[in-house]
Design goal:
Oligomer: heterodimer
CATH class of chain A: Alpha Beta
Radius of gyration of chain A: 15 Å
Strand order of the largest sheet of chain B: 1-2
Shape of chain A: globular
Structural class of chain B: mainly alpha
Structural class of chain A: alpha+beta
Distance between the termini of chain B: 58 Å
Number of helices of chain A: 5
Number of strands of chain A: 6
Order of helices and strands of chain A: HHEHEHEEEEH
Distance between the termini of chain A: 20 Å
CATH architecture of chain A: 3-Layer(aba) Sandwich
Strand order of the largest sheet of chain A: 1-2
CATH superfamily of chain A: Glutaredoxin
Helix content of chain B: 40-55%
Order of helices and strands of chain B: HHHHHHEEHE
Amino acid sequence: MRSFQEKLSELESRGIRVVALSVDVPEINRRQRQKLHFTYTFLSDPKVEVIRRYDLLHAGAGPQGTDIARPAEFLIDSNGIIRWVNLTENIAVRARPEQVLKAFDEMEQGGTTAAQ
Amino acid sequence: MSASTKRNWNWSLSVGFLFVLAGFLSYPFFARFPITRDFPWANFLLFGVGGIFLLVGLVRAFGKPQTYRGKIVGPILAVLSVVVFGFFSYLIFYELRQLPSSTGAPHVGEKAPVFTLPDQDNHQVSLAHLLSAPASSASTAKANAVLLIFYRGFW
Protein backbone atom coordinates (compact mmCIF):
# COMPACT_ATOMS: atom_id res chain seq x y z
CA MET A 1 0.00 0.00 0.00
CA ARG A 2 2.79 2.36 0.94
CA SER A 3 4.80 1.51 -2.16
CA PHE A 4 1.85 2.56 -4.35
CA GLN A 5 1.65 5.87 -2.53
CA GLU A 6 5.39 6.39 -3.08
CA LYS A 7 4.98 5.74 -6.82
CA LEU A 8 1.61 7.46 -7.10
CA SER A 9 2.78 10.40 -9.22
CA GLU A 10 4.38 8.01 -11.70
CA LEU A 11 1.20 5.93 -11.87
CA GLU A 12 -1.04 8.99 -12.18
CA SER A 13 1.18 10.55 -14.84
CA ARG A 14 0.33 7.52 -17.01
CA GLY A 15 -3.35 8.07 -16.29
CA ILE A 16 -3.67 5.17 -13.84
CA ARG A 17 -6.24 5.82 -11.13
CA VAL A 18 -5.27 3.97 -7.92
CA VAL A 19 -8.10 2.69 -5.75
CA ALA A 20 -7.90 0.52 -2.62
CA LEU A 21 -10.79 -1.61 -1.38
CA SER A 22 -11.36 -3.44 1.91
CA VAL A 23 -13.97 -4.27 4.56
CA ASP A 24 -13.01 -1.18 6.58
CA VAL A 25 -15.81 1.37 7.05
CA PRO A 26 -15.32 4.87 5.53
CA GLU A 27 -14.52 6.38 8.93
CA ILE A 28 -11.54 4.02 9.44
CA ASN A 29 -10.41 4.59 5.86
CA ARG A 30 -10.56 8.35 6.34
CA ARG A 31 -8.49 8.17 9.55
CA GLN A 32 -5.91 5.65 8.28
CA ARG A 33 -5.54 7.57 5.04
CA GLN A 34 -4.81 10.77 6.95
CA LYS A 35 -2.51 9.09 9.44
CA LEU A 36 -0.43 7.33 6.77
CA HIS A 37 -0.55 10.29 4.33
CA PHE A 38 -2.16 8.28 1.56
CA THR A 39 -3.86 10.35 -1.10
CA TYR A 40 -5.50 7.75 -3.33
CA THR A 41 -9.12 6.63 -2.97
CA PHE A 42 -10.16 4.06 -0.36
CA LEU A 43 -13.43 2.23 -0.92
CA SER A 44 -15.39 0.52 1.79
CA ASP A 45 -17.11 -2.87 1.43
CA PRO A 46 -18.01 -3.94 4.99
CA LYS A 47 -20.74 -6.28 3.74
CA VAL A 48 -18.19 -8.04 1.48
CA GLU A 49 -20.57 -7.74 -1.50
CA VAL A 50 -18.01 -6.61 -4.06
CA ILE A 51 -15.28 -8.75 -2.45
CA ARG A 52 -17.60 -11.76 -2.90
CA ARG A 53 -18.43 -10.74 -6.49
CA TYR A 54 -14.70 -10.82 -7.29
CA ASP A 55 -14.37 -14.18 -5.45
CA LEU A 56 -11.80 -12.72 -3.08
CA LEU A 57 -13.55 -13.59 0.18
CA HIS A 58 -11.23 -14.85 2.89
CA ALA A 59 -13.81 -16.26 5.28
CA GLY A 60 -13.13 -15.88 8.98
CA ALA A 61 -9.68 -14.34 8.51
CA GLY A 62 -10.53 -10.96 10.07
CA PRO A 63 -10.84 -9.86 13.70
CA GLN A 64 -13.13 -12.16 15.72
CA GLY A 65 -13.49 -14.45 12.74
CA THR A 66 -15.10 -11.88 10.46
CA ASP A 67 -14.84 -12.14 6.68
CA ILE A 68 -12.28 -10.02 4.87
CA ALA A 69 -10.74 -9.73 1.41
CA ARG A 70 -7.66 -11.71 0.41
CA PRO A 71 -5.01 -9.49 -1.16
CA ALA A 72 -5.38 -9.06 -4.95
CA GLU A 73 -4.67 -6.42 -7.58
CA PHE A 74 -6.46 -5.76 -10.88
CA LEU A 75 -5.58 -3.39 -13.69
CA ILE A 76 -8.76 -2.39 -15.53
CA ASP A 77 -8.61 -0.49 -18.83
CA SER A 78 -10.86 2.41 -19.83
CA ASN A 79 -13.37 -0.02 -21.40
CA GLY A 80 -13.74 -1.83 -18.09
CA ILE A 81 -11.76 -4.86 -19.28
CA ILE A 82 -9.31 -6.52 -16.91
CA ARG A 83 -5.82 -6.38 -18.41
CA TRP A 84 -3.63 -7.65 -15.57
CA VAL A 85 -4.33 -9.65 -12.40
CA ASN A 86 -2.17 -10.48 -9.42
CA LEU A 87 -3.48 -13.09 -6.98
CA THR A 88 -0.76 -13.61 -4.40
CA GLU A 89 -0.24 -16.98 -2.74
CA ASN A 90 1.40 -15.38 0.28
CA ILE A 91 -0.17 -12.66 2.42
CA ALA A 92 3.23 -10.99 2.85
CA VAL A 93 3.93 -10.80 -0.90
CA ARG A 94 2.01 -8.04 -2.70
CA ALA A 95 2.17 -6.55 -6.16
CA ARG A 96 4.75 -3.84 -6.58
CA PRO A 97 4.16 -0.58 -8.48
CA GLU A 98 6.89 -1.57 -10.96
CA GLN A 99 4.85 -4.64 -11.98
CA VAL A 100 1.79 -2.48 -12.57
CA LEU A 101 3.73 0.10 -14.57
CA LYS A 102 5.20 -2.69 -16.72
CA ALA A 103 1.76 -4.26 -17.25
CA PHE A 104 0.34 -0.88 -18.20
CA ASP A 105 3.16 -0.14 -20.64
CA GLU A 106 2.69 -3.55 -22.28
CA MET A 107 -1.06 -2.96 -22.44
CA GLU A 108 -0.46 0.37 -24.17
CA GLN A 109 1.72 -1.41 -26.72
CA GLY A 110 -1.24 -3.61 -27.56
CA GLY A 111 -0.16 -6.79 -25.78
CA THR A 112 -1.91 -8.60 -22.96
CA THR A 113 -0.20 -9.96 -19.91
CA ALA A 114 -0.98 -11.95 -16.79
CA ALA A 115 1.07 -12.07 -13.64
CA GLN A 116 -0.02 -15.57 -12.73
CA MET B 1 32.34 -25.22 44.14
CA SER B 2 35.28 -22.85 43.95
CA ALA B 3 36.42 -24.62 40.78
CA SER B 4 33.19 -23.81 38.97
CA THR B 5 33.41 -20.09 39.72
CA LYS B 6 36.73 -19.94 37.92
CA ARG B 7 35.23 -21.20 34.68
CA ASN B 8 34.64 -18.67 31.93
CA TRP B 9 31.21 -17.31 31.25
CA ASN B 10 30.07 -18.88 27.97
CA TRP B 11 29.01 -15.63 26.26
CA SER B 12 28.54 -17.36 22.90
CA LEU B 13 25.35 -19.00 24.17
CA SER B 14 23.66 -15.76 25.28
CA VAL B 15 24.78 -13.90 22.17
CA GLY B 16 23.42 -16.70 19.99
CA PHE B 17 20.09 -16.69 21.78
CA LEU B 18 19.85 -12.90 21.46
CA PHE B 19 20.38 -13.20 17.69
CA VAL B 20 17.60 -15.79 17.50
CA LEU B 21 15.24 -13.51 19.45
CA ALA B 22 16.22 -10.60 17.20
CA GLY B 23 15.51 -12.76 14.15
CA PHE B 24 11.97 -13.31 15.38
CA LEU B 25 11.15 -9.92 16.87
CA SER B 26 12.55 -7.91 13.94
CA TYR B 27 9.93 -9.35 11.55
CA PRO B 28 7.55 -6.35 11.82
CA PHE B 29 10.45 -4.05 11.01
CA PHE B 30 11.73 -5.98 7.98
CA ALA B 31 8.14 -6.57 6.78
CA ARG B 32 7.94 -2.83 6.08
CA PHE B 33 10.20 -3.22 3.05
CA PRO B 34 9.20 -5.43 0.10
CA ILE B 35 12.79 -6.57 -0.41
CA THR B 36 12.98 -8.09 3.08
CA ARG B 37 9.30 -9.09 3.23
CA ASP B 38 8.72 -11.10 0.03
CA PHE B 39 11.22 -13.54 1.43
CA PRO B 40 12.36 -12.78 5.02
CA TRP B 41 16.04 -13.49 4.35
CA ALA B 42 17.17 -10.84 6.85
CA ASN B 43 15.35 -12.71 9.62
CA PHE B 44 16.75 -16.06 8.50
CA LEU B 45 20.23 -14.50 8.44
CA LEU B 46 19.82 -13.46 12.07
CA PHE B 47 18.60 -16.96 12.96
CA GLY B 48 21.61 -18.42 11.16
CA VAL B 49 24.11 -16.21 12.98
CA GLY B 50 22.38 -17.07 16.27
CA GLY B 51 22.60 -20.76 15.45
CA ILE B 52 26.35 -20.54 14.80
CA PHE B 53 26.97 -18.76 18.12
CA LEU B 54 24.84 -21.30 19.97
CA LEU B 55 26.68 -24.16 18.34
CA VAL B 56 30.06 -22.68 19.29
CA GLY B 57 28.76 -22.19 22.83
CA LEU B 58 27.55 -25.78 23.09
CA VAL B 59 30.82 -27.18 21.73
CA ARG B 60 32.68 -25.12 24.34
CA ALA B 61 30.35 -26.13 27.18
CA PHE B 62 30.53 -29.85 26.45
CA GLY B 63 33.99 -30.02 24.86
CA LYS B 64 35.84 -27.96 27.45
CA PRO B 65 33.69 -28.16 30.58
CA GLN B 66 36.72 -27.31 32.72
CA THR B 67 37.08 -23.96 30.95
CA TYR B 68 33.52 -23.01 30.03
CA ARG B 69 30.15 -22.94 31.74
CA GLY B 70 26.87 -23.65 29.97
CA LYS B 71 26.19 -27.38 30.22
CA ILE B 72 22.74 -26.63 31.66
CA VAL B 73 21.89 -23.23 30.23
CA GLY B 74 23.26 -24.15 26.79
CA PRO B 75 20.77 -26.92 25.97
CA ILE B 76 17.93 -24.84 27.42
CA LEU B 77 18.73 -21.87 25.16
CA ALA B 78 19.27 -24.20 22.20
CA VAL B 79 15.88 -25.86 22.65
CA LEU B 80 14.17 -22.46 23.09
CA SER B 81 15.88 -21.25 19.91
CA VAL B 82 14.67 -24.27 17.95
CA VAL B 83 11.12 -23.63 19.21
CA VAL B 84 11.27 -19.93 18.23
CA PHE B 85 12.73 -20.79 14.82
CA GLY B 86 10.14 -23.50 14.28
CA PHE B 87 7.29 -21.15 15.11
CA PHE B 88 8.69 -18.48 12.80
CA SER B 89 9.04 -20.98 9.95
CA TYR B 90 5.49 -22.18 10.55
CA LEU B 91 4.19 -18.62 10.25
CA ILE B 92 6.23 -17.83 7.14
CA PHE B 93 5.84 -21.08 5.22
CA TYR B 94 2.36 -22.14 6.30
CA GLU B 95 0.24 -19.51 8.03
CA LEU B 96 0.95 -16.69 5.54
CA ARG B 97 0.03 -19.00 2.64
CA GLN B 98 -3.41 -19.95 3.93
CA LEU B 99 -5.32 -18.03 1.27
CA PRO B 100 -8.46 -19.01 -0.65
CA SER B 101 -7.63 -20.04 -4.20
CA SER B 102 -10.13 -17.53 -5.66
CA THR B 103 -10.54 -19.52 -8.87
CA GLY B 104 -13.71 -17.56 -9.60
CA ALA B 105 -11.89 -14.22 -9.58
CA PRO B 106 -12.23 -12.32 -12.86
CA HIS B 107 -9.54 -13.18 -15.38
CA VAL B 108 -7.55 -11.11 -17.85
CA GLY B 109 -9.73 -10.22 -20.84
CA GLU B 110 -12.97 -10.35 -18.86
CA LYS B 111 -15.17 -7.38 -18.04
CA ALA B 112 -14.51 -6.19 -14.49
CA PRO B 113 -17.61 -6.76 -12.30
CA VAL B 114 -19.22 -3.38 -11.70
CA PHE B 115 -19.67 -1.90 -8.23
CA THR B 116 -20.66 1.20 -6.33
CA LEU B 117 -19.14 1.71 -2.89
CA PRO B 118 -18.60 4.61 -0.46
CA ASP B 119 -15.16 6.22 -0.39
CA GLN B 120 -13.37 7.58 2.68
CA ASP B 121 -15.63 10.65 2.69
CA ASN B 122 -18.77 8.54 2.34
CA HIS B 123 -19.34 9.58 -1.27
CA GLN B 124 -20.72 6.80 -3.46
CA VAL B 125 -18.17 5.87 -6.14
CA SER B 126 -18.86 3.52 -9.05
CA LEU B 127 -16.37 1.72 -11.27
CA ALA B 128 -17.88 3.58 -14.25
CA HIS B 129 -17.19 6.86 -12.47
CA LEU B 130 -13.60 5.86 -11.71
CA LEU B 131 -13.05 5.01 -15.37
CA SER B 132 -14.54 8.26 -16.65
CA ALA B 133 -12.94 10.63 -14.10
CA PRO B 134 -9.32 11.87 -14.28
CA ALA B 135 -6.64 9.68 -12.68
CA SER B 136 -5.69 12.54 -10.36
CA SER B 137 -6.73 16.06 -9.48
CA ALA B 138 -3.70 17.29 -11.41
CA SER B 139 -5.21 16.04 -14.67
CA THR B 140 -8.33 16.83 -16.67
CA ALA B 141 -8.23 13.92 -19.13
CA LYS B 142 -10.11 10.79 -18.14
CA ALA B 143 -8.13 7.93 -16.64
CA ASN B 144 -6.45 5.38 -18.93
CA ALA B 145 -6.84 2.62 -16.37
CA VAL B 146 -7.91 1.85 -12.82
CA LEU B 147 -5.68 -0.11 -10.49
CA LEU B 148 -7.98 -1.84 -8.01
CA ILE B 149 -6.14 -3.03 -4.90
CA PHE B 150 -8.01 -5.41 -2.61
CA TYR B 151 -6.40 -5.54 0.84
CA ARG B 152 -7.13 -7.16 4.17
CA GLY B 153 -7.94 -3.95 5.99
CA PHE B 154 -6.73 -1.96 8.98
CA TRP B 155 -9.78 -2.78 11.18
